[in-house]
Predict the structure of Aminoglycoside phosphotransferase family protein.
Amino acid sequence: MADRFSTHDLEFGDDVATKRYRSWNRGEPHREWAALTLLAEHAPGLAPAPVSATLDAHPPVIVMSKLPGRVLRGEHATDEQISAMAAALNRLHRIPAPVVEKAEPAPWGPAAAVDKARAWAGKGPDLGDDPLVRQAFQAGAAWLASIAPGKLTTNPFPPILGLADGNHANYLWDEHERRVWLIDWEDSGRNDRAFELGEVCEHISRIDGTLNTEQLLAHIDLAPGEAERVRDFRCLIALVWFLQLGPNGPAAPHNPAGALELQAERVLRLLG
């Protein structure tokens, strides 16, 4: 499960993986252990099985089952892989709401994303002089000033357990079983399903490979009215990344040259 996108250290035995956290100020080990324990009971076989944990150690350590496969970040996802991703998400989202409601809320969700996007837009970040980028900023700022983002903070649908991180490195393709595992639950918690889907579709990791998001969503069991919320969350998440990709933005050093321009095109397409 280790890869260049990890924020932790992993050691592998014959059957287990030992995860040592590099940071835990946001309660990451407790969140991951709670999620793995819940998943083992209500959706076994979807994520690593919990084995043991020393959550108050320095660093905290979790031992879990070792999973085969490679992460989908940087991959050109095939039809089969996209279908497997959707199957994993559908199963995750079918965990009963009364079970999910007992989980802690995820730290990254609708209200946090709306606040972050509006705060960044309000700073007037340096995004350079590219006309397309300027157009995207103007369109995005206008959308953020509208009533649409505020509506997203009230969820009319049952909550789901989510990763609260759309990084495609959290999806592990098992070549042998032809399935996808969900890994790295340190930011997980109770969340809005449409938000989680927006995260998967618009996380900046998408520019490292190819994921047909429309095809992915076509395999997701959306409730009536949910598709519109997913679309708006996609706009929101795309804007969050766009606003941080300027020459001095925090996301710029971690992404390839041209990412800002690609993201500007994405924002304009999503905003229609």
Remarks:
- The chain has one domain: 70-271.
- The beta strands are 8-12, 16-21, 50-54, 61-65, 70-71, 160-162, 171-174, 179-182, 189-191.
- The chain is about 40% helix and 15% strand.
- Residues 70-271 form a domain with the Aminoglycoside 3'-phosphotransferase; Chain: A, domain 2 fold (CATH 3.90.1200.10).
